[in-house]
Specification:
mainly alpha; MetI-like fold; 2 domains; globular
Amino acid sequence: MIRKVAVPVAAMAIFLALWELLVWANGWPNFVMASPSDLPPAYVRYWELFLTGGWQTLWRTIAGLALAVVVGVLLGMVMGFSRLAREGLYPLLVGFNAVPKATVVPILALLFVGEHDFNTVMLAFMISFFPIAVSVSIGLSTLEPEYRDILRSLGASKLTIFWKIALPKTLPEFFGALKVAVTLAFIGTNLMEIVSPHGRGLGALFDSGRTNADYPLMFAVLIALAGLGIVLFYVVVALERIFAGWAERSAT
């Protein structure tokens, strides 16, 4: 347990030390590249904005991620159990995921004028549901047919087969995709906050720092976003150990 905490903390400390050394060695002023030692004054000066903006970014990211989980699992189930649906939906999903989401921001802003929270949640959802849908689909489509045949011969329904066999088998793939979706959801949230500014969230605070050439503030926002992403990532890791810890134990 100590190792699992100490190793990530040590890695982050080494990263910050190398960052500080890089800035010092090149003699960069903070209006070119802020160093870690420039960030604490920014946090102290704007701590209220970091608290309110961090909460606004976090809850909208979680809302978009939750929506992505629901839609992604449902789509994955449809594609996993139906070859016809898989062959029809895969090209559509791949094409949609290939569209740069920055181009979607003005479309959402025009369709739902003034609905800043809704637009932000929707973009976080749109950018993060794809890996979930694909992982669930792959997990279900590769389910051993003999399991299905045995349960069907015993009179089990499709719902029972899904609940007893397919769902547990898919959980490792699902949580692996969810770890990726967490970071993607944060990207979607901050993309909307920066490209379509409405004065809310850490993205708006970053844009304010950029407008005022406050580079320590900009880098402080980036580190805060990274911190939120790490926290949410480890929440997913904790859920994975609760619901799919058997996969890790069986691998060892």
